[in-house]
Amino acid sequence: MDNDDQKDKREEHHKYPPEFVSLDELFKITGVEYYKMNIDTLHTDGKLEKLKKDRGYTFEDEITISPDRLSNYEEKLQIFYSEHIHTDEEIRLCYEGSGYFDVRDKNDNWIRVQVVPGDLLIIPSGIYHRFTLDTKNYIVAKRFFVGEPIWTPYNRPADEMEARKEYIKNLNSGNFVKAN
Length: 180
Prior knowledge:
Layout: H1 3-12, H2 23-30, E1 33-36, H3 47-55, E2 59-65, H4 73-81, E3 84-85, E4 90-97, E5 99-104, E6 110-115, E7 119-123, E8 129-133, E9 139-145, E10 154-155, H5 162-173
Antiparallel strand pairs: 1-7, 2-9, 3-10, 4-7, 4-9, 5-6, 5-8
């Protein structure tokens, strides 16, 4: 696939008109948590360490998504582009570059969240979402996990999965609690 074909696929995800919501509203209608981290003081200010301790994140790694740094780049992009859920929350900290997470709100509409260096998102288990690069085709992200990494996407439809049912229950009852 040449660059024009890849750009066309990416642009398909950019055609949706943006729905601008505040970060508080994003949390209320999706359960997605947002934190701003200072990349320059990340290892000294204690903010990330406190979040990791409070949430029980014990494993982390780093992923670079770019044509020259990710093996099977085209195949991986297709996986990221596909709407899916996970059985565990997805925690990503943009370290370099940029991209977009698209998440479904309670009315099943897309909300696009741009991530740039310092943006940390916690995407609840069971929420339909996807990831796409922007036209820079480059992002470096830290990934955090509770225990050993489990990153299995379950493509839509996955409404009968327990993680999805639990997510819907929490969304409908307003049971999401944001960490401090």
